[in-house]
């Protein structure tokens, strides 16, 4: 089996998830390429005994380089590919450096703190056509969503009447939760929750080829200040919640339909819920991670409207040792996404249309939407896309 040697830049929550996925590679049964984590980098690595370093060195035996300077990792000829999970204000600098070093890149959303930063990353992609560059988004790899994607490919919905997609969670529901970088505009960016959650919401619709024409947005800053962790209060300048209405075109039929996107960091009753609903003239379908096994499908038969509840099992795009009767979860979605990146690196194409990671072009479209949403909210009007 071919091995791709990876470096991880940013060793927080998602850095550990990706390293753990690499350690579980034997769980997959049909991947001809595997990752090996050989280098890690985080600005917090100022001492060899810090907690983040210990987690990696004690659990990932293949790590041979530990550094606080990403430039040292870039200079390592033993690193072929990089997973980059750093705060948004660092995306442009580090992602461009990864590509200029000739290394493959799997980066975190939003792929740049703003549209100019995203454009700089895409310019670097064009300078390195031999590098595979993709963005992280794992929720479409849930088996029910893979089935839903197949319905889109088959044209099962007929003419699209409406689509609804969202990512809702309650990480900031507590107003006394101390401020962190995601609440600071200089680190998270003006997009706020859209930059942090939006690519997850856009992944499947963009992959379906749906083209938003314009945006009307309502953005909310619900908790305007939080404890600063030092006994005082700090302002929170980023958007907590965002609701966008897009006039969108289905390229299959050429018809327009409304697409409603919701991205919320303050969503009462939600823990971490991703959902997608598609209503069509021939069929409808909906899925939510609140019930990760359930795909609901409505097909019009003999003038009857009946929702079928399909209990999906462990039916991932990339086969594994887990029996089909068992449940699929978030760590499995991360593993599948990582497998999709390596499959495309090995074969030059995704396994199938909806089993591929987000492309740089799709991140650029998300930046168009979110930039227009900022203008829409600021001016109280509908804003057309470029």
What does this structure look like?
By secondary structure, this protein is an alpha/beta fold. The protein has two domains: 2-135, Rossmann fold, CATH 3.40.50; 139-317 and 359-384, Dihydrodipicolinate Reductase, domain 2. It contains ten helices and 17 strands. Strand 11 and strand 12 (256-264) form a beta hairpin. Helix 5 runs antiparallel to helix 10 (360-379). The longest helix is centred in the C-terminal third of the chain and has 20 residues, at 360-379. It is globular and about 65 Å long.
Summary keywords:
single chain; 17 strands; six-stranded parallel beta sheet; 10 helices; alpha/beta; 386 residues
Looking at CATH, the homologous superfamily of the largest domain is Dihydrodipicolinate Reductase, domain 2
Query: Helix segment count?
Result: 10
Q: Which strand order does the major sheet show?
A: 16-15-14-13-7-12-11-8-17
| CATH architecture label name of the largest domain | 2-Layer Sandwich
Structural class of the helix and strand makeup? alpha/beta
The count of domains is: 2
Shape: globular
CATH topology of the largest domain: the name is Dihydrodipicolinate Reductase, domain 2
Termini Cα gap? 45 Å
Strand percentage: 25-35%
Mean pLDDT: 95
Low-confidence stretches: none
Biggest beta sheet attributes: 9 strands, mixed
CATH class of the largest domain: Alpha Beta
Fraction in helix: 25-40%
Secondary-structure element order, as H and E? EHEHEHEHEHEHEHHEEEEEEEEEHHE
**DSSP, total strands:** 17
Using only C-alpha atoms, the radius of gyration works out to 21 Å
């Amino acid at each position: 089996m071919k091995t791709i040697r990876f470096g991880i830049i940013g060793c927080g929550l998602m850095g550990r998830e990706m390293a753990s996925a690499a350690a579980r590679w034997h769980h997959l049964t049909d991947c001809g390429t595997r990752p090996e984590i050989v280098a890690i980098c985080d600005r917090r690595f100022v001492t060899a005994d810090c907690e983040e370093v210990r987690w990696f060195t004690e659990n990932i035996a293949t790590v041979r380089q530990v550094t606080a300077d990403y430039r040292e990792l870039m200079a390592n000829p033993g690193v072929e590919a990089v997973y980059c999970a750093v705060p948004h204000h660092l995306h442009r600098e580090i992602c461009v450096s990864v590509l200029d070093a000739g290394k493959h890149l799997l980066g975190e959303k939003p792929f740049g703190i703003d549209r100019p930063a995203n454009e700089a990353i895409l310019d670097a992609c064009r300078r390195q056509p031999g590098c595979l560059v993709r963005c992280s988004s794992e929720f479409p790899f849930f088996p029910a969503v893979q089935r839903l994607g197949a319905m889109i490919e088959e044209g099962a919905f007929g003419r699209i009447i409406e689509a609804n997609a969202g990512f809702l969670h309650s990480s900031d529901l507590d107003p006394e939760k101390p401020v962190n970088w995601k609440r600071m505009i200089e680190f998270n960016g003006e997009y706020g929750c859209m930059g942090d959650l939006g690519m997850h919401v856009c992944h499947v619709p963009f992959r379906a080829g749906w083209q938003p024409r314009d945006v009307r947005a309502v953005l909310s800053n619900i908790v305007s200040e939080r404890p600063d962790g030092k006994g005082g209060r700090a302002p929170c300048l980023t958007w907590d919640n965002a609701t966008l209405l897009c006039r969108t075109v289905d390229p299959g039929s050429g018809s327009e339909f409304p697409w409603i996107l919701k991205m919320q960091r303050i969503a009462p009753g939600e823990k971490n819920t991703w959902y997608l609903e598609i209503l069509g003239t021939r069929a409808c379908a909906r899925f939510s991670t609140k019930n990760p096994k359930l795909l609901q499908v409505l097909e019009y038969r003999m003038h009857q409207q009946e929702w079928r509840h399909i209990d999906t099992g462990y039916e991932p795009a990339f086969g594994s040792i887990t029996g089909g009767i068992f449940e699929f979860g978030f760590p499995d979605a991360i593993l599948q996404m990582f497998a999709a990146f390596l499959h495309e690196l090995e074969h030059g194409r995704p396994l199938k249309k909806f089993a591929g990671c987000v492309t740089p072009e799709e991140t650029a479209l998300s930046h168009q939407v979110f930039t227009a949403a900022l203008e829409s909210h600021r001016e109280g009007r509908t804003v057309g896309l470029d």
